[in-house]
Amino acid sequence: MRYLIVPDSFKDCLSAIEVGLAIEEGILKSFPNASTTVIPISDGGEGFVNAILHSVIGYKVPVVVFDPLLRKIESYIGIINNGRTAIIEMAAASGLELLSPAERNPWITSSYGTGQLILKALDLRCSELIIGIGGSATNDAGLGMAKALGSKFYDKFGTELGDGGGVLGQLHSIDLTGMDTRLKNTSIQVATDVTNKLCGIQGATMTYGAQKGANQEMIQKLEDNMQHFANIIDQHFNIQTKLIVGGGAAGGLGAGLAVFLGAQLSSGFTLVSQIIQIENYIASADILITAEGTIDSQTTNGKTPVGVGKLGLTYNKPVYVFVGSAPDSIIEIQKQGITSVIPILRKPVTLTEAINNAPVWLRSAAAMLSHIIEASAGNCQEL
User: Which segments of the chain are extended strands (E)?
Assistant: First the structure.
């Protein structure tokens, strides 16, 4: 049996390649002669650069940037296509995993570091940027990113705005004359794992504010600020920012990249799949296995499990999804070409226990699944 393992990362736990290798180990422990291929993938979030560089010839370039709290950290970008294309991972500069739970506060966190990654790509004379924007710690609509690239934003007194989602409600005027001119000759594609728009009940703040550290009172204030910011942007550019599909991704960075940089937003999974040519691997596999830390209401909006499921439908291949946690009802998920969702937890545990035991439970779940698959294929002599 030929197994293709196409995992995403487990947030705050395991990288995509670590998830994939644990699954592979579980299969091969039970069936040493099985054919296994691990292709880590990302829909735009953590591990975006590594997933692409795993399958495409390229290299990393270190970059010193500001983290979401404007502290200097060592980050990186990926370079492919003989230096023409930069792969930029927003989470590597402005990501939630860069902060401890106590530090997470979208009122003050900034996307400035992401702008610095873009600047580095421009300095390296890359003519194409591919930016993954999942896993953000911010809710500033790309304000910090745009500031790093030369934009200026002022309040009604002519004072330049500070940083974070807390200042968006003060925006009165915008000055883009200092914007880096190299952006005009640069193609920018954005890989996003969600389709949320900028504002409203399904918008950036209402949907993701809590996981970034906001309480209910802060969420409402951030939403009011985002609405105000969008209104000023619309007046300035004569556009409708709130209608941008995916504009609410990464705390509104999706909209910021589209408006300030003219970027094109795409499904992160689809974009990465094309870059690494995943369909070539799927065509020669018998079984597709993917994995993600959590399946929830956002999964159907374009995250990795659904992306793999749809490819499974196209090629008539069964798709199994290992998850750390899943809702009681997974009917909508399974309509997307997924044969079965398999939670790996063996018993009620704390979050710390789940993180510490994830590799062991992934190996165990993979071993059990492979026994079922091989037995159904008539390979009972190995059981």
Answer: 2-5, 35-38, 58-66, 72-80, 85-89, 128-132, 152-154, 173-175, 187-192, 264-267, 287-294, 319-325, 340-343
**Ranges of each domain in the chain:** 2-40+286-382, 48-269
Q: How far apart are the first and last CA of the chain?
A: 14
Tell me how many helices (H) and strands (E) the chain has: 13, 13
Half-sphere exposure of 190 (CA within 13 A, CB side): 31
In angstroms, the Cα distances linking 212 to 106, 202, 248, 381 are 6, 16, 14, 51
Count the neighbouring beta carbons within 10 Å of the beta carbon of residue 326: 21
**With contact defined as beta carbons under 8 Å apart, do 253 and 261 qualify?**
no
Q: Taking the model in full, what pTM does it have?
A: 0.90
Q: How far is CA 139 from CA 15, 35, 107, 251, in A?
A: 24, 44, 7, 4
CATH 3.20.20.140 fits 48-269, yes or no: no
Given a contact cutoff of 8 angstroms between Cβ atoms, the answer to whether 304 and 292 are in contact is yes
Rounded Cα distance between 47 and 294, Å, is 16
Q: What is the pLDDT of residues 235-280, one digit of tens each?
A: 999 999 999 999 999 999 999 999 999 999 999 999 999 999 999 9
- pLDDT, tens only, 70-121: 999 999 999 999 999 999 999 999 999 999 999 999 999 999 999 999 999 9
Q: Two tokens at 203?
A: 């918008």
Residues 6+ away with beta carbon under 8 Å from 99: 67, 68, 69, 109, 137
pLDDT tens figures, 299-321: 666 678 888 999 999 999 999 99
Q: Where are the alpha helices (DSSP H) in 209-266?
A: 216-237, 249-261
State the pairing for strand pair 264-267/287-294. Answer: unpaired
The residues, any chain, with a CB within 8 Å of residue 348's CB and separated by 6 or more, are none
Could you tell me the fold of the domain covering 2-40+286-382? Rossmann fold (3.40.50)
SS3 162: coil
